[in-house]
Amino acid sequence: MSITDSAKLQTPTLGLYLKLTAVMVPTFLLFAASGLLWMSEKNLLRSEEAMAMRIGNATARVGGALERFSDQSNGAVDWSSPYVTDLMQTMLGDPAIRCVELTDPETGGVLAVVPQGLGCQGSDTAFSLPYEVYSWPITLMTTRFDEREIATVKRYQRDFMLLLLAGGILIASLANWVSFRVIVGRPLRALIGRLEEARMVAEAANQAKSAFLAKMSHEIRTPMNGIIGMADMLGETELTREQDSYVSTMVRSGDALLTIINDILDFSKIEAGKLTLAQEPFRLRELVEDVTQLLAPLAARKKLEFFSDVAPDVPDVMLGDAGRLRQILVNIAGNALKFTLDGHVALRVSQGAKGQFTISVTDTGVGIPEDQIENVFAAFEQVDNTATRSFGGTGLGLAVSRQLTTLMGGTLAVTSREGHGTCFEITLPLIPQAAEGQGLRATPLARRDGPKPVIWVLDPISERRAGLAACLRHLECEVHTDSDPVALLAASRDTPPALILLDSSLAKSALPATVPHILMSQDGAPETGAKGGHLRKPVRETLLIEAVRGALNGTMRDPTKIAAFAASNPAKLGAKTGWAAGIRVLAVDDNATNRLLLERYFSGSGAELRLAIDGHDAVAQSSQAAADLILMDVSMPGMDGYQATGLIRTREAAQGLKPAHVVAVTANVLEQHKQAAHMAGMDGFLGKPLRKADLIAYVERLAPDLRQSRAEDEDEDEDEDEDETLAADRKDPPQTAAE
User: Start and end of every Histidine kinase domain (predicted)?
Assistant: First the structure.
């Protein structure tokens, strides 16, 4: 530890001492003052008792001498005798006695008084001690005294007490400081030093761990870019069913590995406190439905029912981090689908307490033993951690989800019964955007000034049936629900429906043939006849409302065009062409596989593609010919992508050229890497593995601006060529025939 660090550590010790002193000194003063006051009162009481006893003894002694004097007289006693006054004068030797007088009790006359002359003048407020002198006649001797001595004692005791307190505080403070420095200060400074060293070691270890994870992520993503990219390209070719199955398995395995890598990176960022949350408006209904559509192929492969339900009174637009909320829902819903072998998984959203919204994921899976419930949220833990467990995974998804929920100010709880399913409940303080209104916004299905349309909802799953009914009732429909068509027919015989909405599992039920109906299934559109419609599960709310409105109005769309989620392998729809037509692209990557992949991605796109093998080559090629779009790898030997971008931007500024759109294409996907790319002058960021669909979406969004920029460059080049031609003509005019 350096000298500076040691100096810094003295401040906490002094501060702790001052805090302890601030507590100890008032306590010491309270107890010391109480003790001294008690002692002072005791001393005063003893002083008063001693003074009273002294004055009483003196009075009794003189009174006895006067009695003996009176006994010696044969007649009347001569109280004015010098002997009497001398006896009384001896009492004035006591500083507390002011005067002594002899009086006749019958007449009240003064027989003798000392001090002579002054007598007892001014002693009206003094204390008096009477003493009867047994003589003939009886005489009363009165001793008058005051408490000047007691006041002096009080003053001396007060000064002494203050001196003791001041000295005690000083001695106690010094002793406390010395003892604190020796007993507490040194061990405390040593402890703080060890804690500081431990903190530095922990920070270094945390930074090393983050760097290691980032490095490993980069090293894994780089080959994964080739594996997944080539698998996507292979999926665009003509394959047999068996080959297509192999390719799909490769892609899903690659996606699973990327999910694991992302979870590990997120977990590391949360532990390091470097994860920040966005506050942006998003549509909650669209987000929930997107999650169900994303996971629908997995549910279809396992023949599970998977659906979502957002209560109609839930606001449509919220403020929050949509990306992290989507990550939480995908983790939990995907986990539910993984552990559910039969039945259904439901994703529902409802309003909770004031300012709170509850998102629940319920499944009919294997459930969790009661003693293992808390383990599901532990990092790298699963309910079954044995080598022969039935379900795979790292055990990070739920741990990351709970930590993200906590960062968002919410809670994530779980209830489960082994063998009966599990329910994960997320409570979040989402902020509705008041400007967008509250609840589901759609035109009511009932006609103006007309009766409410009667709709029958037939579904074997009560939760989904209730969600569909709530949505339709919100749109002013009269809804009758049941899981048994026969029971619904019997109960609603007097209210014939205008539309029947039924699940595919009940498609063969005997229903009114003249009533239009909409079939919900996971398969393609069946032959439903003129009165039939079809919705693919899981059903989007907008498609449901559109289909119901069309059926009620007699304008139902072609059933084959109503779908809820895309095919599980979009590549099988065929390779898209012409998506980068007329755009000059410079792709920079030091990895030959990645360059080959980019070349295949742009095949048939219409782009003018050039490839560079490193940063030096990229700078050279951009100098030789302009590029509208530069896909720049970051980690390259010799000159990395940041340096190459800086040189390209410097040349563009020096020559007055229009800047190219530079995109970082890198396996370093942490937030600091995105910030570094922005600081280096890059305009965009794409992480590896780079999917062709993501590249196409990014380029298509920029294509109009890139093409316009190229057209302007070409116009400027033509103007420059014309100016050069005119200048040459003026310099060398053409010769005439005569010449």
Answer: 215-432
Other Cβ atoms within 10 Å of 513 Cβ, number: 8
The sign of the dihedral angle between the CA atoms of 116, 117, 120, 123 is negative
Q: Give the per-residue pLDDT at 423.
A: 93
Beta carbons within 8 Å of 472's beta carbon, 6+ residues apart: 445, 455, 457, 479, 548
DSSP summary character for residue 682: -
Q: How does residue 525 score in pLDDT terms, banded at 50, 70 and 90?
A: low
Instruction: Indicate if the alpha-carbon torsion angle 700, 705, 707, 710 is positive or negative.
Output: negative
The backbone region for 108, taken as left when phi is positive above 0, alpha when psi lies in -120 to 50, beta otherwise, is: left
Cα–Cα distance, 492 to 317 (Å, whole number): 38
Question: How do residues 564-591 score in pLDDT, each as one tens digit?
Answer: 334 344 444 456 788 888 899 999 999 8
Topology, domain 584-714: Rossmann fold (3.40.50)
Contact (CB, 8 A) for 282 and 322: yes
Between CA 256 and CA 27 the distance in angstroms is: 66
CA angle, residues 565, 569, 574, in degrees to nearest 5: 110
Tokens of 717: 């080049």
Helix axes 186-235, 692-731, angle to 10 degrees: 80
Q: Give the chain's mean pLDDT.
A: 80
Give the dihedral sign, CA 532/533/538/541. negative
Name which CATH class applies to 276-432: alpha beta
Cβ proximity of 548 and 442 under 8 Å:
no
Report the side by side order of strands in the sheet with 608-612: 608-612, 584-588, 629-632, 661-666, 684-687
Is residue 562 over pLDDT 50?
no
305, 299 contact by CB (below 8 A): yes
Residue 266: burial class (beta carbons within 10 Å; 0-12, 13-18, 19+): buried
CATH number for region 454-564: 3.40.50.2300
